[in-house]
What we know:
Blueprint: H1 7-17, H2 21-24, E1 34-38, E2 41-44, E3 49-52, H3 55-58, H4 67-77, H5 90-101, E4 109-113, H6 116-131, E5 136-139, H7 150-153, E6 169-172, H8 195-198, H9 206-221, E7 229-232, H10 248-258, E8 262-266, E9 291-294, E10 305-309, H11 311-317, H12 330-345, H13 348-369, E11 373-379, E12 382-387, H14 399-411, E13 414-415, E14 417-419, E15 425-428, H15 436-456
Helix pairs in contact: 4-12, 5-12, 6-11, 9-10, 13-15, 14-15
This protein binds 4'-deoxy-4'-aminopyridoxal-5'-phosphate (PMP).
Amino acid sequence: xxxxxxxxxxxxxxxxxxxxxxxxxxxxxxxxxxxxxxxxxxxxxxxxxxxxxxxxxxxxxxxxxxxxxxxxxxxxxxxxxxxxxxxxxxxxxxxxxxxxxxxxxxxxxxxxxxxxxxxxxxxxxxxxxxxxxxxxxxxxxxxxxxxxxxxxxxxxxxxxxxxxxxxxxxxxxxxxxxxxxxxxxxxxxxxxxxxxxxxxxxxxxxxxxxxxxxxxxxxxxxxxxxxxxxxxxxxxxxxxxxxxxxxxxxxxxxxxxxxxxxxxxxxxxxxxxxxxxxxxxxxxxxxxxxxxxxxxxxxxxxxxxxxxxxxxxxxxxxxxxxxxxxxxxxxxxxxxxxxxxxxxxxxxxxxxxxxxxxxxxxxxxxxxxxxxxxxxxxxxxxxxxxxxxxxxxxxxxxxxxxxxxxxxxxxxxxxxxxxxxxxxxxxxxxxxxxxxxxxxxxxxxxxxxxxxxxxxx
Length: 457
Ligand code: PMP
């Protein structure tokens, strides 16, 4: 039972003492005051329970306060809170060996950080040192962090400041087959309706050829003949669960490598089994990156991140001394180790595939009923639902309407996220322990919220 300060007190303190941005990013008119979590559930200060389908932005991987992970944290807290790499201590070694076993060759050298932005900062530095080149390419509408360097990678306008940041970073067109200029209608065999269909295994999509042509153009005109790195998420997260057409990433990697660059997969949201069919999102594209960055789900909510690369790139990076006080902290490593054990022992990735596929299949049925659902896409438990004014225009559903539906869903006990360039995409990235019953509950709630909205309209 919650016995702390009142809601009014918290709001007052938030207004007066907290970063003003924290007021802006609250999704709800009537905010949720979270007190406690267990697995896929959250409780507010009044004891009301919510099904959490956003997981602190794909961060809770195996479940809020998962017993095995909590036990590992408590055990380590009673043994050793902190020491640095100056000394040799077991948890970091146990963890690095374990994490490496989840990655394909030659991705075996691990650097531990405290966040995704920090991991991407480090990856930028590594790529530049290794290649001797400076320019870095990312997708339009991407989010890779908010540090001064990673703000250069991030191209989602909402997060940009009118200041120079991340010198040497530029964008290529995001191969978004729903909102981009080339889409599912360019399928060679038969025009497909949605992005998810467009990732069809036949690889027949002409959109790939068009977007690759555009990438070639960018490589020829916007960056010098050699480039340091190409950063991409396997499925865009903040960008709204945007998936790329079949083979795009594979062909892009080839072009970048031909021009001396390394390929970096940002697995901050897609890693650790979230995409269901694969442990890492890049595996779904049949590529092996040169550098992989990770955070969020790695620690199930404990602040942590990592960069994994090849021995060759690591050797080039060893030209200087790299030190990070908290990176590889013993408590973080013990937690992250328990997260990996849990994913394996509980079949978390398989659950992600089963429940995620069911959710998307059922939501496609809702898409066929409601004119305001334009696209259902994603993989496993990294899902996007694109809200539109109507299917033919594909114009984004206005923010107020999206907000109303979001609030209604919350009032019926389910928390989901939103994102996309216009805030038009509902995002589902729950703790991966959710069940089929939870999925059914959400589907009923979502259906009701949509019909409530249509009635009000
Ligand atoms: N990369 C991706 C894909 C992300 O979604 C985020 C966070 N939303 C980051 C990097 C940055 O991570 P952090 O907030 O831990 O710095």
